[in-house]
Amino acid sequence: xxxxxxxxxxxxxxxxxxxxxxxxxxxxxxxxxxxxxxxxxxxxxxxxxxxxxxxxxxxxxxxxxxxxxxxxxxxxxxxxxxxxxxxxxxxxxxxxxxxxxxxxxxxxxxxxxxxxxxxxxxxxxxxxxxxxxxxxxxxxxxxxxxxxxxxxxxxxxxxxxxxxxxxxxxxxxxxxxxxxxxxxxxxxxxxxxxxxxxxxxxxxxxxxxxxxxxxxxxxxxxxxxxxxxxxxxxxxxxxxxxxxxxxxxxxxxxxxxxxxxxxxxxxxxxxxxxxxxxxxxxxxxxxxxxxxxxxxxxxxxxxxxxxxxxxxxxxxxxxxxxxxxxxxxxxx
Length: 332
Prior knowledge:
Layout: E1 3-9, H1 13-24, E2 31-37, H2 44-54, E3 58-62, H3 68-77, E4 83-86, E5 92-93, H4 97-108, E6 112-115, E7 117-121, H5 128-143, E8 161-164, H6 165-170, H7 181-191, E9 195-197, E10 202-207, H8 213-216, H9 222-236, E11 244-247, H10 251-262, E12 268-271, E13 280-281, E14 284-288, E15 299-302, H11 307-319, E16 328-330
Parallel strand pairs: 1-2, 1-4, 2-3, 6-9, 7-10, 11-12, 11-15, 12-14, 15-16
Antiparallel strand pairs: 4-8, 5-10, 6-8, 13-14
């Protein structure tokens, strides 16, 4: 089966040759690369043309509308492979990446998504936040239990997955212009009942740089993530017959409360911050978290970011026999 690699490109001339060389060096050679130049103003298009002239498996398109999603749509529309994967134009593939992903898919069949572990690299060093994110996502990928923490962050690395083209079509692929598009796609996979194939291998080298899209594009700001998480929660997990509770009255908790008010969805609000108990915010009184034990079959959105506090919350909810991803959901 042929693999179609979707490659949006925007102003990555400084890194693009490394990316393309890593594709050419793959042990799996039955692929096509569909590169879409997203109105680059540097030498990206010239570099793509140079590589296209060297290898006819590389196909180049000019984006017809600015943005990653239009670029992915255009590449997907022109793909001819039965298997689809995505690549970032400033990253590098491990030489056996395509082979491992393809073999895992062939073994498990449709309804599965192959992924792999990732390793960040940077000319200036990797920040602690990105290091922790890589450790977290790799731990999930090692067991294939990625969906178990889907409301925290995107649980599948955007440039390190492969699935059947028929499955992408089935779940809507990039049909809607919803950002962050990689996170939305993972929710679509979960909604469709797909399973993540476990992997303990590092297959992708993920470059961190100050001007990467996820750092500077407003489409990837935290509010976009909260909107996406809440919309999918309401679509996939929310039961209006059960009491809904927000735990946490910080910035994210207040934003979630505002969004629920805008949707006319009633909720309770609890905190373990004694200074906030009894205060009214967004028209809802903050109550002591221990009231949760008196609720029948609650659904709790946890908007508390501190790891130690999250551990304490998890332990408390387990002590009253509440189950993650059934009774409570960590949104950060």
